[in-house]
Design a protein that fits this description.
This protein is α+β, with helices and mostly antiparallel strands. The protein has eleven helices and 18 strands. Strands 5-2-1-9-17 form a five-stranded parallel sheet, with helices on one face. Strands 12-13-14-11-15 form a five-stranded antiparallel sheet. Bound molecules: flavin-adenine dinucleotide.
């Protein structure tokens, strides 16, 4: 691998994960994050803070088995630090009958998104070879054409407010709102993207259980009434978040559910959440947080032959692929992409290798508006799949 200094634009999950993966392969990494990230001494301080650049931080997040396995294999110290910080893992299959080989790889991480990012940021800050800068927005890329005109090469970034940071490789981890195509356009590089709106918006409220010991994951956590979807997810620190996802067009329902009392009332009436609200003594933390603009989007950074359309540049996380949040894949995918970065730059494209196929599949629950469908997920369920499909997976 020929690159020594890597500039990572964006210090969310993908940027921090990239920094960790790259630094542990001997790279010098500078992470440039636009948000002000003051020192936070605890998970509660991190939860109380705001992240204007990643407003989904206070939305319900489920952390799928994929990210647990990845950390177990690649960053066991990070997983240990999360557990030390009060997170836990629970079996994703315990309620599905006798254990099968491989079930140990299907644990879900119980953690707030804010805690996950906080622990990850601390791990990255402790990493020799990483410099973390906040209030350091990236305005665009520095690049050139090779003398023979055959390639466009990125070699640094321009900072908002002036200044440059040079690097052998630039990683864009600027999230769902990142301006990646706009950054590459002045170099003459066009990035095709496919966008499918999910059509949904999230309304989320947080609660804290006064009795942490009684925090179960027994009751059904999610469901779909057609006109609304709902889920309840426990977090660390005896927290629980409830999300009601509605049509982005349904202004009347949004208005009603934005009222905290009515939101709670709805949760107490929904099958599944009703058990959480009746079993646990839940005290609200703040009001109802809405979030829209939830899209599926994939950007293509390779040409028809699979060759990179620009050299020394990679996009990871939502800046590369943004998925419907109901499926709870975003953070796992971001980390999968991050750990692929240190593969030899000459071979690396911005598209990660496909994940290994698994003999188990999540229930077929593609959202309206999504065109791709796996033929294998369209098959009828096996008896055990049928049992599995009655549960919510991820946050969906
Ligand atoms: C409502 C909602 C619910 C979700 N639920 C789940 C879930 O249950 N499970 C799951 O795994 N995923 C979920 N996701 C997806 C998940 O949040 C994202 O996939 C994940 O955060 C992607 O990480 P990222 O680093 O690419 O982007 P982000 O975490 O958004 O980080 C991007 C960072 O880049 C910074 N930045 C942006 N522009 C610049 C710039 N020009 N210069 C410097 N810094 C910049 C931002 O400030 C931010 O810190 C959800 C998303 C939403 C919207």
């Amino acid at each position: 691998m020929g690159a020594d200094r890597v500039v990572v634009a964006g210090g969310g999950i993908a940027g921090l994960g990239s920094a960790l993966a790259l630094a542990r392969c001997g790279r010098q990494v500078v992470v440039l994050e636009r948000d002000r990230l003051p020192y936070q001494g605890s998970a509660e301080e991190a939860f109380a803070g705001e992240r204007p650049g990643a407003t989904q931080m206070h939305q319900t997040h489920g952390f799928l088995a994929r990210i647990v396995v990845l950390m177990r294999e690649r960053f066991p110290d990070l997983l240990a630090a999360l557990l030390d910080a009060g997170c836990s893992t629970i079996s994703g299959t315990a309620a599905l009958g006798d254990p099968l080989p491989g079930d140990e790889d299907l644990s879900i991480l119980i953690v707030r998104r804010s805690t996950f990012e906080w622990v990850l940021r601390r791990a990255v800050a402790d990493e020799p070879g990483v410099e973390l800068r906040s209030v350091a927005g990236v305005a665009g890329l520095l690049g050139r054409e090779t003398p023979d005109g055959s390639r466009k090469v990125v070699d640094g970034v321009k900072l908002e407010g002036g200044g440059e940071v040079r690097g052998d490789v630039v990683v864009a981890a600027t999230g769902r709102r990142g301006e990646v195509p706009g950054w590459l356009a002045p170099l003459g590089v066009s990035v095709p993207e496919t966008v499918r709106p999910s059509g949904l918006m999230y309304l989320t409220r947080w609660y804290r259980s006064t009795d942490p010991v009684a925090m179960p994951l027994g009751p059904k956590a999610g469901g779909d009434l057609g006109y609304l979807k709902f889920l309840v997810v426990p977090g660390d620190g005896a927290t629980v978040s409830a999300t009601i996802a509605i049509s982005a067009e349904d202004r009347e329902l949004r208005r009603v559910l934005s009222d905290p009392e009515r939101f709670d009332h709805a949760c107490r009436a929904l099958p599944g959440p009703d058990e959480w609200f009746s079993t646990l003594d839940l005290e609200p933390i703040g009001g109802v947080r809405p979030m829209g603009g939830l899209i599926n989007r994939i950007r293509t950074f390779t040409d028809a032959d699979g060759a990179p359309i620009v050299s020394n540049f990679h996009a990871v996380g939502d800046a590369h692929t943004c998925t419907n949040p109901l499926y709870g894949r975003g953070c796992s995918l971001a980390m999968v992409q991050a750990v692929l970065l240190p593969t030899p730059w000459t071979r690396t494209t911005t598209s990660p290798r496909p994940l290994r196929p698994t003999r188990r599949r999540a229930p077929n629950r593609w959202p309206p508006g999504t065109t791709t469908r796996s033929s294998s997920t369209a098959r009828g369920p096996t008896p055990r799949r049928a049992r599995r499909s009655t549960r919510a997976t991820g946050t969906g």
